[in-house]
From TrEMBL:
<protein>
    <submittedName>
        <fullName>CHM1B protein</fullName>
    </submittedName>
</protein>
<comment type="similarity">
    <text>Belongs to the SNF7 family.</text>
</comment>
<dbReference type="InterPro" id="IPR005024">
    <property type="entry name" value="Snf7_fam"/>
</dbReference>
<dbReference type="GO" id="GO:0007034">
    <property type="term" value="P:vacuolar transport"/>
</dbReference>
<dbReference type="Pfam" id="PF03357">
    <property type="entry name" value="Snf7"/>
</dbReference>
């Protein structure tokens, strides 16, 4: 059980580290979005597209870190259940021995107290098992649509108060500078 408890600690630590990495990626995504706005305001669509790709990459990385953290949490919950089961098994063995001795003497108060303890241990086990199942059911998989970069560019342009014509074929940026000029007027 000592080895399992050590592994449990390491798993929980890894899950926290993955969560920290996810938050770091979220911050970097926000910074990239701010760079997108600045590039759009300057009319530099190539730079804006590069920052949009970086923002999408950071977002996907944050999601992947969260997904991995959830998986590690699920494994940690399983290890926690195993550790708890080991403890409960030892306790149950002690309870059974005590029940044998008590049944021989037929002391009803001792039998009742032992049964209460036995039921309490099973309730604790049920709570921990439910927590593990909840953790497992909360892990999700996400997919990323192909047009995220264009949508992010449009969103950043809208936030910057600019009209971005996304219907143009890629590579034509002439009307973007016109839109910027009209927005400045």
């Amino acid at each position: 059980l000592t080895c399992a408890a050590e592994h449990l600690f390491n798993l929980k630590f890894a899950a926290k580290e993955l969560n920290r990495n996810s938050k770091k990626c979220d911050k970097e995504e926000k910074a990239e979005k701010a760079k997108i706005k600045k590039a759009i305001q300057k009319g530099n669509m190539e730079v804006a597209r590069i920052h949009a790709e970086n923002a999408i990459r950071q977002k996907n990385q944050a999601i992947n870190f969260l997904r991995m953290s959830a998986r590690v949490d699920a494994v940690a919950a399983r290890v926690q259940t195993a550790v708890t089961m080991g403890k409960v098994t030892k306790s149950m063995a002690g309870v059974v021995k005590s029940m044998d001795a008590t049944l021989k003497s037929m002391n009803l108060e001792k039998i009742s107290a032992l049964m209460d303890k036995f039921e309490h241990q099973f309730e604790t086990l049920d709570v921990q098992t439910q927590q593990m199942e909840d953790t497992m059911s909360n892990t999700t998989t996400l997919t990323t649509p192909q047009n995220q970069v264009d949508m992010l560019l449009q969103e950043m342009a809208d936030e910057a108060g600019l009209d971005l014509n996304m219907e143009l074929p890629q590579g034509q940026t002439g009307s973007v500078s016109t839109s910027v000029a009209s927005a400045e007027q």
